[in-house]
Amino acid sequence: MELTLLGTGAPAGLPRPDCPCAACACALGPDARAATSLLVDGALLLDLTPGAAFAAARAGRSLGGVRQVLLSHPHDGPAVEVPAGLPQPGRVPDGRELALLTGHRVRAVALDAPGTGYAVTGPDGQRLLYLPPGGAPAGLEAPAEPYAMVVLDVVGRPDALARLRETGAVVPTTDVIAVHLDHDVPPGPEVRRRLAAAGARAVPDGTTLEVGAYEEVPDVPRRTLVLGGARSGKSVEAERRLESFPEVLYVATGGSRNGDTEWAARVSAHQERRPGSWRTVETCDLVPLLKDDGPPLLVDCLSLWLTDAMDAVGAWDDAEWADGGERALRDRVRALTDAVRETRRTVVAVSNEVGSGIVPATASGRRYRDELGRLNTAFAAECEQVLLVVAGQALVLRG
Questions:
Q1: Given strand 44-46, what is the order of strands in its sheet?
Q2: Residues 54-80: pLDDT tens digits?
Q3: Measured between alpha carbons, how far is 61 from 270 in angstroms, rounded to an integer?
Q4: Cα–Cα distance between 182 and 10 in angstroms, integer?
Q5: Which of 19, 62, 255, 346 measures 20 to 30 Å from 318, CA to CA?
Q6: How many CB atoms lie under 10 A from the CB of residue 244?
Q7: Cβ pair 61, 4 in contact under 8 A
Q8: If you count DSSP H runs as helices and E runs as strands, how many of each does the chain have, helices first?
Q9: What is the DSSP string of 123-172?
Q10: What kind and span of H or E run contains 251?
Q11: Using alpha carbons only, what angle is made at residue 74 by residues 198 and 63, rounded to the nearest 5 degrees?
Q12: What CA–CA distance (Å, rounded) separates 176 from 295?
């Protein structure tokens, strides 16, 4: 089954008309996107958009063989003119299946938002799922038969991808294509980086893909370290990397700090950002979690883990530090990094980058700074991807 993406942008396109934002200003050339529209084997058109015939011609395709036009979501603005020779657009009721003379079968998938998703099975048996902007499947049951390709709003509804993964509809070999791309994320390298972290990719308008060809599916890094200074956006970046995965275990190493209202406000802000399907555990005992099998881990953060470890070995007292405390801390760090090396779980860890600031005035502060630098270095050595977040912008140091 062959899929041509006539457009890959949001309903208003990218750049949006008359929008002065930086993302729209940068959406030029291959990063400019018309409203999303899919042409399947030249016979089935999913979503009729303005200029569809011209878009098909630019892609080297014709709409002359289209036998069915299906709409997936309500269209705002003036009615779209139906090109001569095309059948009138329609929608399939949720749960119903439409069989085409071309051998394609189309089943309507119920959503949690206005619109309809379409599961298309080609004459060759390959399966494709297309979801409209802002939509996620409703009432999915596990286990589901996996799709060869899923085309959906990865940026706007990462939880939709998480639901599909949870039921088995999306597996590591599923080609996840991001569409309905808007100006929420700067185009070019940044949107490609964010999508790759979710196991997805974007392609330019006019691209033709073979459903079931897996060689382009990006590999999600097994282990990632996200570094950054205070309020740099490092926790948001770490959370974003796992929001398209179900049943994430959020490991909070800071504890509750009873009576500290400022800390409680920070914890509450983090909790409100997390998807409802995530679980939270408060612990600094990371090694057993890394050794166990289970869902992805988000560890926030290694800086507080180090504080706890240094407390445990008496690192703040010079005499205790010299009399075995330093050696005990090295053993703890080695046990942690060994567990990271051997883990089979997906892990995203957050840590502070403090070595670029003012030299601490106290000996204990300098000791902590040095030990955190050593911990970050050792942990990063075991990760496939390392990021440094500055002013909310993620710089890829490795991977």
A1: 68-70, 44-46, 37-40, 2-7, 208-210
A2: 999 999 999 999 999 999 998 776 677
A3: 48
A4: 5
A5: 255
A6: 27
A7: yes
A8: 11, 19
A9: TTS-EEEE--TT--BSS--SS-PPPSEEEE-TTT-HHHHHHHHHHTSS-T
A10: strand 249-252
A11: 80
A12: 20
Q: Are 375 and 383 in contact (CB under 8 A)?
A: no
pLDDT in tens, 3-58: 999 999 999 999 999 999 999 999 999 999 999 999 999 999 999 998 899 999 99
Contact 111, 135 (CB under 8 A): yes
- How is the chain split among helix, strand and coil, in percent rounded to 5? 30, 25, 50
CA torsion, points 38, 42, 43, 46, in degrees to nearest 10? 10
346 half-sphere exposure, CB direction, 13 A CA radius: 21
Annotated active-site residue 270? The verdict is yes
The pair of three-digit structure tokens given for residue 343, joined into one six-digit string: 């883990």
DSSP classification of residue 116: -
* Residue whose C-alpha is closest to residue 157's, from 133, 124, 189, 128: 133
The residues that bridge with 200 in the sheet, in sequence order, are 176
> CB of 155 within 8 A of CB of 23?
no
Cα–Cα distance, 394 to 398 (Å, whole number): 12
Q: What is the pLDDT of residues 298-353, one digit of tens each?
A: 999 999 999 999 999 999 999 999 999 999 999 999 999 999 999 999 999 999 99
The helix or strand, by DSSP H or E, that contains position 176, with its residue range, turns out to be strand 175-178
Q: Give the integer Cα–Cα distance in Å for 152 and 131.
A: 5
pLDDT at 375 over 80: yes
Token pair listed for 385: 């991807």
Residue 44's nearest CA partner among 61, 57, 22, 24 is: 61
